């Protein structure tokens, strides 16, 4: 009995150690992504280059189907797709949403992130692509003003349960 108790304690310690190791690795990956993004943003004066770098880095880091940035047009009535990585790149400069329309339009209106774990369960979900099953959209805020949205999507439901913190940062 003492031997089994000792083995159980050792197993519990090993499991705890592995969980801490995984947590540390995740935080390191998150910090590395943020550092890479910060470096890209500060190294270029071109808005196009900065936005393209952001969506490309996030798409690779988060292993998502697509990453895109919508910016509010000067009229403040519409959002226009300004940068994309993945299948949505063909919509760049063409796709427009009215403020309040779709998830990105709602994010602008409500000024808060919105996560849709399974688009098939979302009533009135506006599809650019019917393959999208999971969507996470965060507002882009500069000096307390929302200027657009950053979104990631996946063909898998519940794909971004662990990425919410990173994207919100």
Structure, described:
The protein has a six-stranded antiparallel beta sheet with strand order 3-2-1-6-5-4. The protein is built from four helices and six strands. It has about 170 residues and is an alpha+beta fold. The relative contact order is 0.13. The chain has helices at about 1-40, 45-60, 100-110, 165-169, and strands at about 65-70, 80-85, 95-100, 115, 135-140, 145-155. β5 and β6 (about 145-155) form a beta hairpin. The mean pLDDT is about 85. α1 (about 1-40) runs antiparallel to α2 (about 45-60).
**Average pLDDT number:** 84
Biggest sheet record: 6 strands, antiparallel
Number of helices: 4
Low-confidence runs of at least 5 consecutive residues: none
CA-atom Rg in angstroms:
20 Å
> What is the number of E strands?
6
Helical fraction: 40-55%
The best one-word shape is elongated
Category by helix and strand content: alpha+beta
SSE layout and pairings?
Layout: H1 2-42, H2 47-62, E1 66-72, E2 78-85, E3 96-98, H3 102-110, E4 114-116, E5 134-142, E6 145-154, H4 164-168
Helix pairs in contact: 1-2
Short description:
This protein is α+β, with helices and mostly antiparallel strands and 169 residues long.
What descriptors fit this protein?
4 helices; 169 residues; 6-stranded antiparallel beta sheet; 42% helix; alpha+beta
